[in-house]
Amino acid sequence: MRASAAIARRELADLFVGRLGWAATSAVAAVCAFLFFPRLAAARVATAAPLLDMLPLVLLLVASALGMWLIARDRTSGALAVIRACPVSEAEIALGKYAGGLAAIAVILVGTIPIALVAGVIGDLDPGPVAAGYAGAFLLGAAYLGIALFAACAVPEPLAALLAALAACLLWSAPGLLFSPSTGALGRALELASPVLHYQRMARGIVELRGVVYLVTVAVVGVALAMSALELRRRR
Amino acid sequence: MRSIGGTARRNLASVAGAAAIAAAVVAANAFTCGIGWRMDVTESSRYSLPPEAVTLLGELPDLVIATAYFANLPEPLADARAQIEEVLAEYERLSAGELTWRAADPSKDPRLADELTSGGIHPLALADRGERIWFAVRFEFRGEHIDWTPLDPAAAAETAAADFAQHLRRLVQGRPRIGITRGFGEVGETAALREPGLGFANLYDIAPIDWDRRTDAAYLDDIDLLVVNGPTEPVSPDAIALLDAFIMSGRPVVFLIRGIAWSREKLPEVMAGGEGKLGFQGVPSRHGLDGILAHLGFRIGPDTVLDEEGAPGFIPVGRLSWRTPLYFPIGHVTEAGRTVLGSSRGAPIPFASTVEIATGAAGQGAASGPRRPALTALLIAGPRARMVSGGHRLSEDRLEPPAGASSGGSIILAAVAEGAFAHYPGAAPGPMLGAEVPAGSPEQTRIAVVGSSVLIEDSLFVMMESAGEPAFWGSFVLFDRLLAWALREPTSAERGVVDLRPLPPGAEQSADLARWTVAGGVPLVASGLWLMCAWAARARRRREKARWLRLVS
Q1: What's the rounded mean pLDDT across residues B491-516?
Q2: Three-class DSSP category at B393
Q3: How far apart are CA A16 and CA A25, in angstroms?
Q4: A9: Cβ–Cβ under 8 A, 6 or more apart, which residues?
Q5: Cβ separation of B523 and A200 shorter than 8 Å?
């Protein structure tokens, strides 16, 4: 675990001692603010829903890029081979990189909190759905990052890994992000499987155990698969 | 051989590990789906069912099917749809299989759309949209159904949980019977109220009360609530005795009384202003209820309240609809009134009269101590509202005499009272009543008085339907809440549902400013944090370098 923590610290330092992490945080916050406030004024109701609605797409893009960056950067620079030469298991490498990426997602999300705070100053915002929405966004980001990390570990080419992660996350999130599932058994099944619909419920102010567990388990499975993919690559 | 065996063992271990993880994931998700634990973190607990709904769901004797008809919804209603579906899902979850819900899209099925229209569910008409907007839920139970259409679409999501409970109770346990008086020049008929799709017919069993013909005590036995619907002719002593007996029985009465009676026959030529123009003569109404109202603690002023900050538009006067430049007042819900009317902010009250409250009235004096009725102002006019007292005339563009000075916000348009009321001595039982009237009403008898009779006037609803005039929905909602309060039904008001949190005036400018401030401010702060991180990292490197140099030296 100590090795994982060291790797996570290194990833976070690379992102935020360098410009990349802050640039991503600023870009996400600026775009969200730019899109959110006109929608708030048009709605004429104090609500953070337009902001929370944007976050799944933002997280999908950020997590996919982050997953690719975490592995591909070390792979192309040869740092991965150096780390592997150290007494560190593949599981510790994957876990460390995942923890570093998750911390970066948390920082990026924190960067958008001023938008909600300012909206709260403008109008009387209900804090419950906002807090639940941010908790849900963090879990959604964790799940996306798990998938993106697995894609990055499984696919050696950085661009292909990014596209694979984007495609997987988009396909998984399509019910809710791209269309509303129809009624009936298929609709119910899609609703249960869609991470975005679970997130949207949290953003409306309903925290469900099944949604939390679902997103956490997807993240765990993603990391586990990433560990296996790294192990397989090392064996080859 | 050893190498092959080792690989096989590793592969087997990998497969077993993957299978174990998959099994754990499936088990965890299945287990949590089965538990169904959820937490409603909204301030108003809008997705949590009221206690009465939980009780009702536990006692459902048969399957209830709820069908949500949503189609072509514009932005605010589309948001409300998701929230309403959450509420329906919660009803289904807590019903233990006795309630199930589904969604249907009438816009894709013309036959279904026709069926709904003929069955009382009408699409909403929005002026700027050509599509038919479907926004309704139908509950079916043992071959009967009841429809929910939002009285106030803007607050539909806020009130859905309580509204559904009310509709389910109506469907399973029956509708309260509401008597609406007629026979003494009451302004509206009650026929339209019985039409499906107009709201009240869904929720209440409306019965016309011909109190000019029948005043025997048994006449009102099956009536749960009586609406005195704005008489303009003197109500007979027998009818007043009937009314008093009804109050003494502890059942609620809603007085809709206008202080001015309107007619268009007596308009002078000079006011009519030529052919095609309409005008009305208003004279103080001689409804004959002043005595019993004063006894209960109320007085309806012989006046008309106007407010240039109120709502213009078509209004019904008698049976006619008429566009007036004279703005009628908005009845703003008072702080105390929110316990009765909940999230309603107010409603236009066309040609309202003032309602005065007298706390020391005779009807209250008889009841002493804790039983003394509590009177509460429910609606007040805006600060710039004015009134014209006594007889006056209206044409399309003139008012004679002109209205007086601004009130400063002290005009009460509606009030309620709750407590034990004494028997009205002016209402000696007439020859047809034939029953002994108690000396006082039971405790917590509820009386509501509104200085207008147009809240339930037929023509208002007909116009609302045809014109899609949203301003009038407020009156509709207000009256529904008032009835629910009078009938002691748990309403959204009692559940403490908060308002829709509208943005304050000038929020558009603030939002625009915030857009640029946050979009520029966060990168600025991020740059500062980056500089700090970079500086800290450099300082750390220097320290480590210095440490190494010390070690080497």
Answers
A1: 70
A2: strand
A3: 10
A4: A100
A5: no
Q: How far is A145 from chain B (nearest CA, A)?
A: 18
Q: Specify burial of residue A3 (Cβ count, 10 A radius: 0-12, 13-18, 19+).
A: middle
ipTM value of the model?
A: 0.84
Give the pLDDT of residue B506: 77
Residue linked to tokens 């945080």: A25
**For B178-217, how does the pLDDT look when each residue is reduced to its tens digit (9 = 90+)?**
998 888 888 655 554 555 555 567 788 888 889 888 878 7
Q: Is the pLDDT of residue A132 over 90?
A: yes
Helix axis angle, A90-122 to A209-235, nearest 10°: 140
pLDDT exceeds 60 at position B521: yes
Sheet holding B177-182, edge to edge: B205-210, B177-182, B225-229, B253-256, B445-450, B412-419, B374-380, B330-333, B346-348
Could you tell me which chain B residue has the CA closest to the CA of A109?
B522
Rounded Cα–Cα distance for residues B452 and B469 (Å): 19
CA B315 to centroid of chain Cα atoms: 21
**Which amino acid type is present at position A176?**
G
Whole-number Å distance between alpha carbons of B323 and A86: 86
* Amino acid, single-letter form, for residue B413: L
The pLDDT tens digits for B94-132 are 888 899 998 888 888 888 888 888 777 777 766 555 677
- Judge residue B307's burial from the number of C-beta atoms within 10 Å of its C-beta, 0-12 exposed, 13-18 middle, 19 or more buried: buried
pTM, to two decimals: 0.67
The residue of chain B with its CA nearest to that of A31 is: B519
Size of interface A-B (CB pairs under 8 A): 164
- Annotate B492-503 with three-state secondary structure: CCCCCCCCCCEC
Tokens of B130: 């050509």
- Nearest CA among B285, B413, B254 for reference residue B347: B413
Q: How far is CA B26 from the centre of its chain?
A: 45
* Chain A interface test: which of B7, B37, B41, B72 (most A C-beta within 10 Å): B41
Spatial distance between the Cα atoms of A37 and B95, rounded to a whole number of angstroms: 41
Spatial neighbors of B476 by CB under 8 A, at least 6 apart, are B151, B199, B461, B464
**Which whole-number Å values give the CA distances from B391 to B60, B136, B293, B404, in the listed order?**
56, 45, 21, 13
Cα B167 to Cα B176: distance, rounded to the nearest angstrom: 12
Do B310 and B330 touch, CB atoms closer than 8 A? yes
